[in-house]
Amino acid sequence: MDYRDVEQRIMKRLNLRSRPVAVKFADSPPAGIEKFRGTEPSGCSFWRLAAEGRTFYTVGSDHYNCAVGSYTHNIPLPPERAKELEQTLGLMVESGYLKMEEVPGIPRVTRTPGAVVYSPLGEARDPDVVIFSGLASQIMVLLEAAQRAGSAAQFPLLGRPTCMALPAAMAQGSVVSSGCIGNRVYTGLGEGEMYVVVRGKDLLGVAQELETVASANEQLSKFHRSRRESLASA
Fold this sequence. Notes:
Layout: H1 3-14, E1 21-26, H2 45-51, E2 56-58, H3 67-72, H4 83-94, E3 115-120, E4 129-135, H5 136-148, H6 165-172, E5 175-177, H7 181-187, E6 193-199, H8 203-231
Antiparallel strand pairs: 1-3, 1-4, 2-3, 4-6, 5-6
């Protein structure tokens, strides 16, 4: 697949402001790709770096600062930090942000990755998932394209934690996430923006259906505007 062409077509058709981010859960560090250097407070922070144009891979220790993200990515914390997940969840429960009984239902990557590769979509190598961010109206069209392609999951709108959208999409197909407060702080996601995460193997089908769906929405917009003008009396 020509990922660069797919990225350009989708971004142009939807007028997206941020580059889509490709993520690959690899068994081992890939050859020819730079290892991440430095520290970040969360796994979703790497999305921001990739959207800015960087291609790199992380290893398990790069994710330890985010106990919840490590949980969704099936990255075990080392013994000396193992209590951080319990502490983080305790804070979320105490504040009323989360109920402990919700935790077992959070989707997780099925096996521990040897490396996680992040890149802009155009630089991708067979990604497991692609993360698109945009305004609700843009995400709506992209989700409709996934539905037309037969690759949309049956999940409801996902919320916190945002990172669970990746394993959810890997397992069942395209999902929409409203984002969570941590993700919005760490990535700079706009107040009116949200995500759709597309499974890598479904990407071409979604891209092929996008033109049909986008054109249909433009026609229907004119149709509904005309009906509103002629029928709305309040």
